[in-house]
Amino acid sequence: MPNIVVVGAQWGDEGKGKVVDVLTPHVDVVVRYQGGNNAGHTVVVGKEKFVLQSIPSGILHRGCRCVIGCGVVINPASLIDEMEALVQRGVSLDGNLYISKNAHLVMPYHPALDRAAESQAGKRRIGTTGKGVGPAYADKAARVGIRMADLLDEQLFREKLEFNIRQKNRLLREIYDAEEFTVEGILGPYLRYAGWLAPYITDTALLLSRWIDGGASVMFEGAQGTLLDVDHGTYPFITSSSTTAGGACTGTGVPPTKIHGALGISKAYCTRVGGGPFPSEISGEIADLLRTRGNEFGSVTGRPRRCGWVDAVGLRYAARINGLDAFAITKLDVLDACETVKICVGYRYRGEVFTEFPEEERIWHEAEPVYEEWSGWQSATHGMRDYAELPTKAREYLERLSEIVGVGIALVSTGPVRDDTIIVAGSALPRWFPSLGASGAQ
Ligand code: IMP
Fold first, then answer.
1. Test site for ligand 1: of 11, 72, 118, 129, most ligand atoms within 8 A of the Cβ
2. Alpha-carbon separation of residue 255 from 74, 126, 206 (angstroms)
3. Ligand 1, closest atom to CA 276?
4. Between the CA of residue 170 and those of 166, 184, 212, what are the distances in Å?
5. Is 126 in the pocket of ligand 1 (CB under 6 A)?
6. Catalytic site residue 81?
7. Could you give the angle at which helices 183-197 and 76-88 cross, rounded to 10 degrees?
8. What are the chain's domains?
9. pLDDT-based confidence at 439, cuts 50/70/90?
10. pTM for the predicted model, two decimal places
């Protein structure tokens, strides 16, 4: 049974939640491997909308085992809220949610440090979600982080907390002039969270290994996107985790030899939330149209997303870094109203055109996008479920994008609900999951 990584190919918010939800019935396990409650994976089931932050989107399917891997950072209060909200809406968590002992905790001082650092960053402000994810990963790398396993060992937890509080309070007081924390103020609530979460905390790397050896199929659900990766993204305007397919191994303990493929998710256009470079960003009427039609407002923070044309330079890079076998293109229907549609095929910088994604911050900031322009299809694709049904111009647009990027398209999403989905015949998806069924070759 194949083990597949589903990874964002842009700056996040590509619609990974919906794609994971569509594919979940064909796998046994869904595992999150990085990020934290900075993510917001939206899944629409019938008339109900769910926004998942730390729990894998597979949880909405009864019988699917869901794992929060060691690469995730967990804010326990937020996770418990998320769990309770799901249970209240009839979603079962009994025996199907597993949390890694090695996952690091987001502590109350992390969001405080995140916000304090941002408030003093001036024009180098990243525009973080303010959830403390960056400082939590910083502590992990600095070897002072506190893990889920520590939460279950009161003495060790207190010891680590006391050490951290001394350091963090000094930082908060002397550098940021911000409020301090007390050990007792954190210990009480965190020990309560420990009691709540204990039944779910386990050695998930061992479980995954046993399940895979037993023939289970695992889907790795990435959060954020390739261009926000701590190593491969538009550093420093990134999140602090390994969002790319490689992170699926380090963030779960599943070795690369057990992973069989990678599916990249991209919108038919592009968005970014927060600061940082975005070469194909647009403003004005068309940007407003994309934002309104695509409901481009952060699912966690509500912030309006910056909008632009699809960036084939970035997608080619994502294909290379993640070893993508195929793309899923989401929100095609958002472009239905556009008179013309554009694909960014290069970055022009000081007279030179870059078709490979550059690594220099200055180029990302100052490059002019080079576009191919196509006339739009200007008819409704919303809700279409058959590739052959798509207007010719929409198919030509997708096929040209796929040609430039050098990777086939396996799925096209034409609306938020599960069924508004085209699985492309002959593509990687029906090969991996023959039970998926497919419609019309690309
Ligand atoms: P952080 O992850 O909160 O530290 O934020 C760092 C950068 O990543 C900011 O630009 C955020 O807007 C962006 N970011 C974090 N999570 C998401 C996400 O789930 N979708 C899109 N952007 C995100």
1. 129
2. 23, 32, 12
3. 10
4. 6, 17, 46
5. yes
6. no
7. 40
8. 4-92+203-436 (3.90.170.10), 104-200 (1.10.300.10)
9. low
10. 0.96
